[in-house]
Design goal:
Elements (H helix, E strand, L loop, with lengths): L1 H18 L1 H4 L9 H12 L2 H19 L5 H17 L9 H21 L8 H49 L1
Helix pairs in contact: 1-4, 3-4, 3-5, 3-6, 3-7, 4-5, 5-6, 6-7
Length: 176
């Protein structure tokens, strides 16, 4: 329960940071996707289900505040949280590069999905311009910030892992 509360508070703080501080620090209208970093991180560091649940709520925040339709961002973030969990099965958890590669791939997939849902279906076919002016700069910006954010998320996760172990130890010693 403490992890759920902690992750919920973290998601709210990251959402606020992404849409205030980093919106002001955008380059050519492109800002980093911090919620995607958090979603993918919890997918590979905790579990696929945790990543999907975190992604659903991150996407729901985006849907409520910025989406034209409720559910598009929720679905995309949920899939990317699951993608982080699936990618964790193919790499060692201790691999230093893995989280960053997963974030970059996820951000690219997110950008492509946004292009399909928000531009291609409306008859806007300038794919090369969208990739060069939106997707690639966002991947780069998100990747740079993930170098700072992922180590902090590891410490956050480690705190809750230790807390859960202490609770299990006290339950075992209390039951004997």
């Amino acid at each position: 329960m403490k992890r759920v509360i902690g992750q919920s508070v973290l998601v709210m703080l990251i959402f606020i940071l992404q849409n205030t501080v980093f919106a002001a620090l955008s380059f050519n209208g492109v800002k980093p996707n911090l919620l995607l970093i958090v979603t993918v991180f919890f997918g590979f560091a905790v579990s696929t289900n945790n990543g999907m649940l975190t992604g659903f709520f991150c996407g729901l925040l985006c849907d409520i505040f910025f989406g034209s339709y409720i559910g598009v961002y929720s679905f995309l973030f949920m899939l990317l949280g699951g993608f982080g969990g699936v990618m964790a099965r193919f790499f060692y958890q201790d691999d230093i590069v893995f989280p960053y590669v997963t974030v970059a791939l996820s951000d690219g997939l997110f950008g492509l999905a946004c292009y399909v849902f928000m531009f291609l279906l409306r008859g806007r076919f300038d794919f090369v311009t969208y990739v060069s002016r939106v997707i690639l700069p966002e991947i780069l910006y998100t990747l740079i910030l993930s170098l700072l954010l992922i180590p902090l998320l590891h410490k956050f996760n480690l705190f809750f892992v230790k807390l859960e172990l202490k609770e299990k130890e006290s339950d075992v010693s209390g039951n004997t």
